[in-house]
TrEMBL record:
Protein's UniProt name: Competence lipoprotein (ComL)
Transmembrane segments: none
Classification via InterPro entries: BamD (IPR017689), BamD-like (IPR039565), TPR-like_helical_dom_sf (IPR011990)
Keyword entries, A-Z: Cell outer membrane, Lipoprotein, Membrane, Signal
Upper classification of the organism: Bacteria, Pseudomonadati, Campylobacterota, Epsilonproteobacteria, Campylobacterales
Lineage top rank: taxon: Bacteria
Origin species: Helicobacter pylori UM037
Pfam families: YfiO (PF13525)
Boundaries of every Outer membrane lipoprotein BamD-like domain copy: 62-205
Record bears the keyword Membrane: yes
Record carries keyword Signal: yes
NCBIfam families found in the cross-reference section: OM_YfiO
Amino acid sequence: MSVMKVIFKKFNLYKTGGMRLKHFKIFLFIAMAMIVIGTGCANKKKKKDEYNKPAIFWYQGILREILFANLETADNYYSSLQSEHINSPLVPEAMLALGQAHMKKREYVLASFYFDEYIKRFGTKDNVDYLTFLKLQSHYYAFKNHSKDQEFISNSIVSLGEFIEKYPNSRYRPYVEYMQIKFILGQNELNRAIANVYKKRHKPEGVKRYLERIDETLEKETKPKPSHMPWYVLIFDW
């Protein structure tokens, strides 16, 4: 007999006067405790049983969690897929799906991680330019978060240049060239801002050094507008 049936039976007994209120309360407390404990054990068993599953189980779980924007859970499912089915053809598919999902959620470091891992393990001459492009694209979208990070900008410009040199006939080259221009213009703006700091500190050598790093030719050709900076940031900037 189930716990709920026993509870209803005792409740009817209490209503007809065959059981005191005090005893009924004690019984009800014990019964509810048993339900809570039973539910907890069932949940633990469910979580405990989530291993040694077929690859499609983890892959479907990844896609489901991506759909509901639960990327942390999706990452955990990927770890299970990767550890239990390392040679499954669903592993690279999951990598791409997670890379795109993290980029859409603006988690560019994680997106770059998945694209980089895909390139290392599954990159071929037919897809490596596309995958490298995705990785560079994640850097480009992360640019606004690193607009004053000289190393990040310099490394990104180098990587973009390497792509153009390595894949001159790639269909993604125009997009990479566009990103390269944006990064160089950002670097120009950063160098100009640093030169301004040296100017305020009366250090002409520093001013000269950073102004010389500006690509004047590109500036004249593109005529970029200065980056918008809110007034409350401008007060404390540099």
